[in-house]
Write a structure and sequence with these properties.
Elements: E1 2-4, E2 23-28, E3 38-42, E4 50-52, E5 73-80, E6 86-87, E7 103-107, E8 123-124, H1 127-135, E9 140-143, H2 157-164, E10 168-171, E11 181-186, E12 197-199, E13 203-206
Parallel strand pairs: 5-7, 6-8, 7-9, 9-10
Antiparallel strand pairs: 1-13, 2-3, 4-10, 4-12, 5-11, 11-13
């Protein structure tokens, strides 16, 4: 059983306010006599389901081309949380055993929103939670929320904490209809140089 947990990339997909929306510019069309259809894409590095690179928030951080691939593939646990807004704490995961999880994917109400709707409130990480998960051996944290930090944060404490512990994150997952439990995650970033993030095609395979 495979679950596709990627938001579809369409011109209607919501993006971070002020960011570039996805668009397609045809260069050659078969319908107009061309031998192929050929298009150019305009897309933000943070479009839809994506993996932040450390360069996104660290001046000398790694670009997607140098991010640790082994962190984005392997054993993962999906956990549903009831918090609808604010920083997630270890107590939000008291109902589940995360021992041996390696990767944590957090399912919230945001997965129930349509692709073209920006969440007015969403759960995000806390430094306390990141430190606790690091102690459990977690290497990747994925959320269906658009950020690991509060929408209005300028300090981006959670982003910097992830870098400090060399953990990676995925944002804007689509976990609607995915039962809580253990899976194999495959969500590889593209081999992009100079970029601050990369869209991913994230899937889960039932163990």
């Amino acid at each position: 059983m495979i679950y596709d947990i990627t938001r579809p990339v369409t011109p209607n997909l919501h993006v971070w306010p002020g960011d570039t929306t996805y668009s397609v510019k045809p260069l050659v069309k078969i319908a107009e006599g061309g031998s192929v259809n050929l298009v150019t894409l305009e897309i933000s590095a943070h479009t839809g389901t994506h993996a932040d690179a450390y360069y996104h928030y660290e001046a000398n951080g790694e670009h997607p081309i140098d991010m640790p691939l082994d962190s984005y593939i392997g054993r993962a646990k999906v956990v549903t949380v009831t918090r609808r807004d604010g920083g997630l704490l270890p107590s939000d995961f008291a109902h589940v055993d995360l021992t041996g999880a390696e990767r944590l994917l957090i399912h919230s109400h945001v997965s129930d929103l349509p692709d073209d709707q920006w969440p007015t409130g969403f759960p995000y990480l806390s430094v306390e939670l990141i430190e606790w998960l690091h102690g459990l051996g977690i290497v990747l944290i994925g959320l269906d929320s658009p950020s690991v930090d509060d929408f209005n944060s300028k300090e981006l404490l959670c982003h910097h904490a992830l870098n400090r512990y060399r953990m990676v994150n995925i944002e804007t997952l689509q976990l609607r209809g995915v039962p809580d439990g253990d899976y194999e995650l495959v969500a590889l970033p593209l081999k992009l140089d100079l970029a601050c993030a990369s869209p991913v095609r994230a899937i889960l395979r039932a163990l």
